[in-house]
Amino acid sequence: MRCLMHHAVLAAAVAAGLAAPAAQAAEPGAVEQTVPPPISQNQKLPPLHLSDAQRAKIRQVVSAQNTEVTFTLKTTKPAKDFEPKVGAVIPKSLKPHSLPPPLIYEMPALKRYTYLRLKQEVLIVNPMTHKIVDMFAETPSR
Question: What CATH number did the domain enclosing 84 receive?
């Protein structure tokens, strides 16, 4: 009997907790906050249009990171023959990295993308589709 009473009190507390937010939203003058839905596999990222100056900044920041893909590891050897190009899907054995926070603060559009440093190239990758959306040389051309 005591256990049954405990479950009834617990159920009432949960129901009251769920009803409270609904009641608050119904109050006059209440401000409803909207949260954007998370990006799912079916949603597309907006196109990424990087200027030469933005590419130079990305190049500068990621070159300081120790993220260059090497093919000496057993996990990356299968990707040795992969030739990167915009629109290509990166091999599953290659794991892209999040872009460093300084870049994201300066260029918020990059927040939803990842990158790889591969074969003297910087690849900007859509993490949902694993497709390369932009790429440029790791070192500036002269």
Answer: 3.10.450
Asked whether the whole model's pTM tops 0.70, one would answer no
The label of the residue with tokens 């009190």 reads 9
At CB < 8 A and 24+ separation, what contacts does 64-69 make?
65/97, 65/100, 65/117, 67/97, 67/115, 67/116, 67/117, 68/117, 68/118, 69/94, 69/116, 69/117, 69/118, 69/119
Specify the number of domains making up the chain: 1
Residues 4-14 pLDDT 10s: 555 555 555 54
Per residue in 75-102, pLDDT tens? 777 788 899 999 999 999 899 999 999 8
Domain membership of residue 92 as a residue range = 52-137
Do residues 129 and 89 touch, judged by C-beta distance below 8 A?
yes
91 and 78 Cβ atoms separated by less than 8 Å = yes
